[in-house]
Amino acid sequence: MSVTVLSMDEIINAICLHMAERKAVRVEEVRVELSWDEDTGYTAEVWVQGRSQFLVESNLIESILRYLHSEYGIRAYRENVRLELDEEITAVVTM
């Protein structure tokens, strides 16, 4: 079994790339802030063209899956990705 760990910066990059593609804007126009809360779990607030949008964990994982495929050539599934919180939020991908 192989394990890939994405840092918080890589998760943010994944979300930026995904949202830029979905909103048809440049990556530089997307801002992301990740957070974890007992009530809502892992979320991200995303700003695109001055508008704010909240993403839930499943949206984050969707972005991570696309990033894994485009940047690492890894085809993973939702059940392969686990978000963890230590000093920062990371994504652990087990294959």
UniProtKB/TrEMBL annotation:
InterPro entries: Uncharacterised_YxcD
Superkingdom to which the source organism belongs: Bacteria
Pfam family, one: DUF2653
Protein name: DUF2653 domain-containing protein
Taxonomic lineage of the native organism: Bacteria, Bacillati, Bacillota, Bacilli, Bacillales
